[in-house]
Each structure stands twice: as C-alpha cells, then as structure tokens.
Amino acid sequence: MQVLSEAQHEPGFCTFFQECGLNPLLNDTFIPAIVPCFDYSRARHLTGEHYRRLKEVCPMLDKGENNTYACCSIKQLSSLERSLTLSKAVLIRCPSCAENFAHLHCITTCSPNQSQTINVTQVMNVTSQGKTKLAVVGYQAFLSTTFAEASFQSCKNVRIPATGGFAIGTMCGRYGAKLCNPQRWYDFQGDSSNGLAPLDIDFQLIKEGHTEGLPEGVIPYNGRALMCNETTPSGGQFCSCQDCEESCPKMPPPPQPPSPFMLLGTDGFLVISIILLCLLILAFLLYVSVACFSRKRKDEEKGKRRGKDQNSNDVTQRDIDPSEVTCADRNSLVAQDFLSLQFQRWGTLMATYPLTVLLLSAIVVAVFSAGLKSIELTTDPVELWSAPNSRARQEKDFHDSHFDPFFRTNQLILTAPGRKGHIYNSLLFGPQNFSGLVSKDLVIELLQLQTRIQVKTSLKDVCFAPLNPSNPSLTDCAVNSLPQYFQNSLDNINAKVNMTELGVTKEVDWRDHLIYCLNSPLSFKDITDLGMSCMADYGAPVFSFLAVGGYENDDFTNAEAFILTFSLNNYARNSTKFKVAMQWETEFLKIVQEYQKNPACNFTFAYMAERSLEDEINRTTAEDIPIFMISYAVIFVYIAVALGEYSSWRRILVDSKFLVGLGGILVVGCSVLASMGFYSWIGIPSSLVILQVVPFLVLAVGADNIFIFVLEYQRDVRKPGETRQEQIGRVLGNVAPSMLLCSLSESVCFFLGALSTMPAVKTFALYAALAVLMDFILQMTAFVALLSLDARRQDNNRCELLCCVKVSTRRPNKPNEGFLLPLMRKYYAPVLLHRYTRIIVVKLQILFQCKLTKIILFLVQGSYMLDYFKYLYKYFEVGVPVYFVTKGGYDFATVEGMNAVCSSVGCDQFSMTQKIQSYLAIPANSWVDDFIDWLNPGSRCCRLYTFGPNVGQFCPATEVNVFFFCFLLPATRFMAYHTPLTNSQDFTAALLKARELAHNITLGMRKIKGTSPDFEVFPYTVTNVFYEQYLTIVPEGLFNISMCLLPTFVVCCLLLGLDLLSGLLNLLTIIMIVVDTVGVMTLWGIHYNAVALINLVTAVGISVEFVSHMTRSFALSIKPTHVERAMEATANMGSAVFAGVAMTNLPGILVLAFAKAQLIQIFFFRLNLIITLLGLVHGLVFLPVLLSYFGKCFIGACLCTQ
C-alpha cells in the first residue's frame, strides 16, 4: 500500500476512474467493497446509456447530454446506486435528505471536478480477473461547512417508524442520534469498518474563506443542499412534519393553564370562605337577636308566667289549647303512636315465645347462609374496579379480542448502591463514566440470574415470542436486559481484541461494545474490531430505556439500575394457558426471592410479576384477619361489659350481659352471613372489601340499636301487674320506631347506592343494604327473644354462665341509670346548652365548616410491591405503552386513506401518526409507514408470505391481495410510549389527553371518503381500566352520596309524620359530617378513590346512627323549652348513642392501626376514625345546639293528649 503525499488538483480532472476490484483490506462487508482505480485524467464526456445512468443516479450532475462530463463509469454508477439504495431505505421518508446524501457521494464519485474536491491518500495494487491495477483505498474529501451543516440538518430528524428512533442514530456510529453532528455523521460514512463504506474517506469540513492547510488547487465543495421543507428537483415532495420541524404547520400556542382564582390579591377561595363565615355568623346572631326580641314581645302581650331554668334560660309554662295544635303535629303524633303500638304488640309476642322465635330465626339464617357454598370472591382488580359497560372495559375487550391481551410483564429492577464507579478511557469513545453498577462482574451475575430463570421455569412454554410465536425456542423469547447486547453469551462478554485507531493501538472489550450498543441499539454490527451485533438473541433491538435506568442526559453507562424484563403471553382467565402462565410466575417469584436471600447476591433489587398485585392484596388481607378478629373481640368485650347493670358486687354475675352481648354479635354475624348467602344464591360475587367493611358497618349499626334497647329496658321500671313480656314489648314500642328510622334509612340508602357504575361500590351497597335490613329484622325477633330469656334468668337471680347457681340478693325494683346517663344529665348537657356555650359551638362549627369546605392504594408495608413501585418511578425512563387502535370501517387501500395515517413524505400534515408524535414521548410505530417503505421501488427490503399457498416465498410489492387485505382490516393499532407517569394524577391526565387526541384523530379520519360514520380511534393502555374511575369519581361520588342522603330525609319525614323541619335538620347534620370527612381526608393525606367512596357511603349510614336517634328523641320530648328538650335528648338518647356507636367503634378502630396493609390503615383505621369522631362531635355537640335553636317538637299534641 502506498501513501500519496502530493497530487494534482485541477478543474475538469478526475482522481480515479473505473472499478479495480474488491478492497483487500476489508472482509465481511454488507455489500461488495469495490474500490476505484487510481487514474488522474480528464473527466469523460457522457452520452447514450452512460449519460442516462448518470441522470438516474446523480441527476444533480446533469448538464444536458451534449454538455455532461463525469469521472465515473457505468459500473461505478451501478455500485453507487446499490450503495445509495441501502441508505435511502432509512432516508427516503425525507426526499430532500436522501437527495442531499446522494449529492455528496455523487460529487466525490462522479464530479467532473473531482480532483478539486478530493485528495487521494492511500493506494495499493489490486488484482482482479488476472489484472493488477493501482486502486484507491483512502482519500480525503473537502466540503464546506455550509453544505455539510445544511445536509445534516435536513436529515437529523428523519424517523424510522418501525423503531420510533432517528435514522441518523444508525448512521452516526457510537454517538447515536443524541450526540451526532455533521463531522461525526460524515466520519461514520467514511469509516470502512462500518461494513458499508468500500474504502476509507476522511471528510474535511472547511469553513468558507479558510484556505490554511488546504492542498494547492483544492476547493471545498460548496454546492447547495436542500432544506427538508423543500421539494427536490426530481419532483420529490418536502419532508413530513414528523421528519422535519420546518414542515410542520404553524400551530396556535396551547391555551395557558387557568391562573389561580384570586380575589383582592389573594386566594379567592379563602376570601369566599371568610365572607361566607362572616355572613353565616351575622345571620345566626341576627336570628338569635330577633328570636329573643320576638319571644319577649309575645310573653308581654299574652301575660305569660315566666321563670328561669338553672342556666338562666327563659322558661315559659302555660296550658295548651287544642286549637293551637297544628294538623302536622297531630299527624306526627298519630304516626308515633301507631308505630309504638305495633312494635309493642310485636315485642310482647316475641318475648312470649323466645325459643320458637330463636329456632325460626336460625332456620331462616341457615337457609340464606346455605348460598355461601357457591360464593365467588372477585379478586381480579379489573373486575373489581371497572364496570363491564365502562368505556375503558369496552376498549380493553375490543383490543384483547382482536390482538390478544397485553402481554404479562415480569420485571426486576436491580441496583448496587455503595459500589464505586470508574472512568474508562475508550479508544473509540474517549473518557466515559461507568457507575459502580455497570461492571463486568455484575453484568455476568445478571446474565446468570437471567439464565437461571429462563432454564428452570420453562420460559419457552409461555413466553411472548414476536418473531416465532408458533413454536418458540428459548432464544425466541422476548427478554429485555443488558446482557442481550451480548446475545446472552458469556463468550461475547469476555471477548477482547487489540484495535488501532488513528495510529493508537489499544485493547477494546465489552465496555466499548456496550457504549456503542446503548447509543445505537439497532446496529447489527458495532464499530469495534469485536464486530458483534447489538440486537437481542430473539431478533429485536433492546432500547436503552428497557435495559438500564437512573441515568441523566443519555449517560447510559453511568446508570444506577439494570432492568430485566420477561414478557409472557396473556390469556383469558378461564383459559388453561392462563393457569400455566400463573404457575410460571409463581416459580419466577420463588427463584427471585431465593436469590434475594442468597448472601452471595451483590444486588439490591425490587421485583414484580403480573400476578403480584393480586397476590399481595390477598396475602396481606389474610395476614390482617387476626387484626380484624382482635378488633371484633375488643368490641365484643366492651359490649358485654358495658351492657351490665352492676347494682351490687353480689349480683355481678347475675346482672352482667355477657350472653346478651354475645347474642348481639351473633345477630350481626348472622345478618352478614344471610346477606352474603342470599347474593351468592343469585350469582352476585363478593369481594375482600365487602368481607372487611360490611361486618364493621353492621356491627356499628347493630350495636347502637342493642344499646338503645337494653339501656331503655334497664332504665325502665315494671308497672304493677305488668308481666315481663309486656314490659319488654312496651320498651320495644318506645325505642323500635327510632331503630326503624335509622335502619330503614340506612338500608334504603345502600340500595340506592347500588345504582353506582363501579362494581366494587355496587356490590358493597347491595350486601350492606340487605345486611342492615336483616340485622334489624333479627333484632326485632331473635334479639328480643334472647333478651326475654336473659330477663327471665335475671328475675330468677340466676348467674349468667352458671344458670343453676342462684344468688340471694334480689334485684332492686328501681331504674338503673348506670354511670353515663347521670353524668351527661348533670354535667355535660347543662354545660353544652348554656346560652353562651351554644353561641360558641355554632360559631366554631361555622368556622370549621367553612375551613374544610375550602380544602375540599393497594400497597402494603413490608410488601415487595411497594419497593418495586418506588424503583419503577425512580429508575424507569419512559411511561407505559399506549396503543391507538382503529376499528373497522376505514379504507387503508386508497392513497387518501394512507395519507391520513402515515407520517412519511407526501402524507397529510395532520395525519394520525403526525398528531400522535406531537403528544407522546416516543412516536407511534406505524405499520402503514413500513408498508409504504416496502412499496417504494427504491427500497430493497424483502418480505415473505406468512400464510396461504405461498408461505415462505417472496411477496412482491405489486401483490394485489395486499390492498384487498388492507381494506378488510377489522382493527389495527399503532404503538407509542407515554412519558413517565408516577401517580394517579399523571395517569388520569394521560388518559384524558390521549382520549382527546384520539377523538380529534377520529373526526379527521371520518372526513376521508369511504370511511364508515361509526369508525373510531381510541387509546388503549393496560392501566386505563384502573384510572378511568378518576375521570368520573367526583360526579359518581356526588351521585352515590346524594342517593344515600335522599332516604335519610324522606324516611325521617315519613316516620315522624311528615315533619319536614326535623328531616331537614337531620339531613343538614349528616351532610356536614360527610363534607367535614372529605375535608379531613385531604388534611390527613387520604386520597379520594373508589375505596374512599365506599367509606363515604358508609359514613352516611353511621352518621344516621349519631343523628336520627337524637332528632326523634328531641321531637317527642314534652319539656317546655327547646333547651330543656335538647338537654333531655342529649342525656337520655345521647348517652345511649355514645355508648352504642362511639364507644363500640373506637376500640375496634384503634386496633386496626396495627394492620400491615395500607389499605386497612388508611381506608379503615384513618377514615373510620375520622367518621366516628366527626359523627360524635356533630351528633352530641352540634346537633343538640342546633335543635335548641331550630328544632321541631310535638309538645302541643303530646300535652293535649296527656
């Protein structure tokens, strides 16, 4: 080989001409490396066939047949055309780019002034066909920076639709698209080691006007390069928007996000809340003032006899004239008398035949509960939270029926914290940062783990194998990991070779290959002398964001995490193959967990299988069952102790209510079992949420009724001549209407809540409604009978657990008020209802309400899923895949139809894929663009038949059936990636925007001639079915809660004899409890979702217990003033509510704080604690004060009756 130092450079002269044979310095090239003969001579005049070929290959050199000269032969033109065809396959989407690329190589190969543009630096003798000639194997090409920069700019944004990457990334060697620039682009083109260049070309980019260092006579080529938004002289259209920013139509700027709501220079909602607070306080003070003034005027006019109560509140006593009693009062009292009489008769009957009643109750419960044998528990999160008729479910079903379900993902994210990194001085890439993770020993360890999982789990039986789905081998399985850059070969990782670059010889190894592949994952051969491919062993590229994570600015080798992903085929849940996939995932988790416990493991990692979320929910729910059992045990112990009378130490075993408390718990349990059994009979599945929430709810409701009934019985004295059964019946007649009011309100409330579209909320409401109803029925039957038996035992002075043992101390014949009633009557009620306290309470309530009105997670502690999601959000560089799916009714076979979808040259500026590009992180993979590339005569891409009589044979682009097939497509899809999404707000916003984009695309494509009117494009992501609820959760919640609030008002009005005022006060207090609950949820970090909505529906039911009993007790009081009636209701009914609801719930709730599942901690412990405390405050603090001002009572009718 000779190195030339001097050469002549004159216009009209060639430096080389004709082909001399193959370059002896190169082997294993993609195309024959044919080199030209060194021949300094004049340019040849072209005519005939020679001229025609030049005009086809290099039209920019055409000066007319009589005036065209060139420095290339016909053979050289054919070789040049063959070489350009390979490049055009990835650049043809942008004709001006392809034209500029061809322009450059036409100038260096065929220009008539070739000697002025190039400078031959290396020649050697080449023997071909028995002749030895001097051939050029290296030269310098001089280009102006203006031409070079313009050419590069026209090509830098050209996409490869099949991969979503940039074409320039495959043509810039180690630098990839991110770091590519004109010099590096041309250096790669001139590097003979890339397998495409037949010889070494040293491109010298010279700034205009700079001549220093140039060989004499050399003039850097400064032709005009086309801009990407220009048409080509040969008629090629300008590049598409996706490939050329300059071609994009001018879009109006997006609307600015709404500015914060401001008033008077500050938070508008705060200002409104302050104004509302002031108005409400002023209105209240005005009402109090007017009421006091009006009362004094009336007292003076009618000469009333006035006194003072113990709190200096006005007391007015006078006789009630029957004419003063309104019709509404009479109706209310008639309703109360009727209900009391019926319940009295019923209670007497139940108490008379207790054993028969208990037997019949047990039979009814057994019949209902027998349905439990066929109970179905819904554990599939999709079935649980997404309605079958919801848009997301319908879209998922359509996608899965046409494309199979989205593949199952099993993934590890591995880190190695604490390991020290290093700087690797690469021969080819210069100094590169390598993190402590990216080291040879850890790469090998990762490969060993991957191989162990592949071999021990029979991966090929279930894996997703996109290139060989019918009969996959282990190497056909889609496994994405860093070792795939080495084709999972330990020999490739250990490979090393000495390489010379720019006169420097140095060893290159796995690190050089990895650097290259991370930046150019589509390459079949790296630029090192290792010559290894970057493609995975299953035949597809592994993009850097699927192999490593936790890097910045594409500094891949400084990554903090390895990502190892196994993709499995997905199947319907009733398929046997689904069970096989689930079994593989079980083995996968077992291997990974064993590896994590291995002391030799050098990784800290998180992992998940597709089944993990469902498994973890089931596991932690099972682990928390003891916590629930302890919670129920605490509640039981409290009920058993609190229901006792304890009048004497000698009678403690007689007066205790252990069996009554146990009976009350059994009544609750039987009502839940009966409800679950009934719905199992009719085929409505249950869920773990129902098993956890419904018993708790029914226990809260049932315990309250038990306390009200038992305490009323204990505080009552048997009348002379009255039997025990009659006394129980009379007591039941007093309290049962109140129990009916609450139970009926709650049951109707939950039945209406079943109108919800969310499956979990709907089934919960159905189960809760029937359970509450059954609880009331059993309380009116079995519990009355049980109390009758216990009263008979107590009357006989028999011990509770030792029925044969009697005590001599007899039961005192006086009411037993216990401890709580006197305390509330003597201290709490007078203090609460003092005239100044009442004003303070109202003001504080208004302030609290305004503040909270302004304000308005299935993960597990100790679960590997929690660690996995933390790693996922921290290290993953892209979001979830999203498919834009087209339904049938669109004609892809027409030019207009294709143009409305594709993104290459000639396509509509607002085509489907163009719009997707403007929205997503990685543009859509478009089969239409691939199809167009295949149809392109300039593309030499080969296709084979995959079905039909010609399987395995070449499929020509002229195949007519291809177009017919396109027209009949029932569905197609275009895949892209979201940007990283880390929380429910991100996923919801992504879903909303994707749907807006799909709707816009649908409207545009429907305008294409021949498109069906019902044609539709929709976005499909596997997470849509879970996050769709957030799009409608607010209106859905308002609807459900409104449906629950409605019966509380209607039932209260009806059972109180059309008393609208009591119904409104009752409704107002419950609404305030729900609103305040939502406000405190925000303060305590409880997110509003479907589980929270279930608890808010529950809150309505529990609030009824705190409120309705008090409202009815106040309405039936015959005390002379509102304040005294409120005191009586607070003392008598408030003590029962406090003991029955608050003190029953709180001990059990506090136990739940020790649960492992965050679902339990947040939505059961926190939320139920909030509901109970707010119900207690509103029911026993605010409501008595509210009733003392605005309450309605039947005092006139009651006094007249008396």
Biggest beta-sheet profile: 5 strands, antiparallel
Quantity of strands, as a count: 29
How much strand content do the residues show? Answer: 5-15%
Oligomerization category of the chains in this entry:
single chain
- Helix share bin: 40-55%
Q: Rough shape?
A: elongated
Task: Tell me, rounded to a whole number, the average pLDDT.
Answer: 79
Low-confidence stretches: 303-312, 315-319, 851-862, 962-967, 1195-1202
Helix-strand category: alpha+beta
How many angstroms separate the termini?
Answer: 129 Å
Radius of gyration from the alpha-carbon trace, in angstroms: 42 Å
Figure out the total of helices: 39
Pfam families: NPC1_MLD (PF22314), NPC1_N (PF16414), Sterol-sensing (PF12349)
GO cellular component, one term: plasma membrane
Subcellular location: Endomembrane system
Main location: membrane
Can you characterise this structure?
It catalyses: cholesterol(in) = cholesterol(out). It is a multi-pass membrane protein. Its main location: membrane. InterPro entries: HMGCR/SNAP/NPC1-like_SSD (IPR053958), NPC1_MLD (IPR053956), NPC1_N (IPR032190), SSD (IPR000731). With 1202 residues, this protein is of the alpha+beta class. It is 52% helix and 12% strand. Strands 16, 19, 22, 23 and 24 form a 5-stranded antiparallel sheet that branches. A 4-stranded mixed sheet has the order 1-6-7-10. A hairpin with a 5-residue loop joins strand 13 and strand 14. Helix 25 packs across helix 37. The longest helix has 37 residues.
